[in-house]
Amino acid sequence: MSTTPDPAAATADEAETEADTCYVGPIRIRRDQQGKTTDRRLLEWIDPRDAARRSDRTMRDSWRVLRIQSEFVAGFDAMSEVAEAVTVFGSARLHPESPEYSLGVRVGRALGEAGYAVITGGGPGAMEAANQGAHQAGAQSIGLNIELPFEQGLNPWVDLGMNFRYFFVRKTMFVKYAQAFVCLPGGMGTLDELFEALTLVQTKKVVRFPIVLVGSDFWGGLLDWMRDVLAARGMISPEDLDLLTVVDDPDDVVAAIEAATP
Ligand SMILES: CC(C)=CCNc1ncnc2c1ncn2[C@@H]1O[C@H](COP(=O)(O)O)[C@@H](O)[C@H]1O
């Protein structure tokens, strides 16, 4: 929304959805009270020539470790009861009317019907679609949300949700509690999650971890580039390409995961 809302005309609902709002951990901050997200404060550059700020940073970072620790504890506690699960990534920007969104719902449903809990980033778009499908299948529908510099709520199909301050803590949960990754079409965030998973498998930090890309028309170009440029120039081994399975049908997502599960 680029126009400034007229507070007198706005309903409570509009104020809720349109106001500049962000979360800092469990705290919700609106309008001019907004600050920086926790991740941004952690990663903030401090001029190394400024001795006073350097020393202040040392103090703050030491205490920050406790907050990071507590986020791991809360995450481990929340997820400890999750049985077999698959993490689904994909664009936050998919429109509910788009074919990719309905594909996401079908993927979530197929995974749920096969007995898997579905874990997503808890946000809109592909995440919402996969959570919807899982919920409809009666499976556990989990959303691991992240604090962002604008209002960010869990999508309505999440039955077990958590809001994380730190990206890297949340990412640990995505991998630790899932036995496979599924990527729907997506942008930077999806590619980041995909390549982090690939690196973990390639370096054998996780084993027997299928990574399934859904949508051959969307992912085909990336795979061609990986084969024709990365593998051809020796940046990856030809076998690394086998770490990825590309499918179009939700049932094939389940089949690919089951084929890789002992
Ligand atoms: C409309 C909008 C941009 C909302 C952002 N809200 C988000 N909420 C939760 N996870 C997210 C969000 N944006 C990106 N991600 C993470 O990055 C991936 C999607 O990023 P992208 O849209 O492909 O690049 C998701 O799998 C999710 O884990």
TrEMBL record:
EC number(s) recorded for this UniProt protein: 3.2.2.n1
Q: Which residues form a coiled coil?
A: none
Pfam families annotated for this entry?
A: Lysine_decarbox (PF03641)
The record's annotation in InterPro entries points to: LOG, LOG_fam, LOG_family_nucleotidases
Broadest EC class assigned to this enzyme: hydrolase
Q: Provide the catalytic activity annotation.
A: N(6)-(dimethylallyl)adenosine 5'-phosphate + H2O = N(6)-dimethylallyladenine + D-ribose 5-phosphate; 9-ribosyl-trans-zeatin 5'-phosphate + H2O = trans-zeatin + D-ribose 5-phosphate
User: Which GO terms of the cellular component aspect does the record hold?
Assistant: cytosol
Q: Which GO terms describe its biological process?
A: cytokinin biosynthetic process
The UniProt keywords, alphabetically, are:
Cytokinin biosynthesis, Hydrolase
Return one GO MF term: cytokinin riboside 5'-monophosphate phosphoribohydrolase activity
Q: Which residues form the signal peptide?
A: none
Q: What family name appears in the similarity comment?
A: Belongs to the LOG family.
PANTHER family according to UniProt: CYTOKININ RIBOSIDE 5'-MONOPHOSPHATE PHOSPHORIBOHYDROLASE (PTHR43393)
Can you say what this protein is called? Cytokinin riboside 5'-monophosphate phosphoribohydrolase
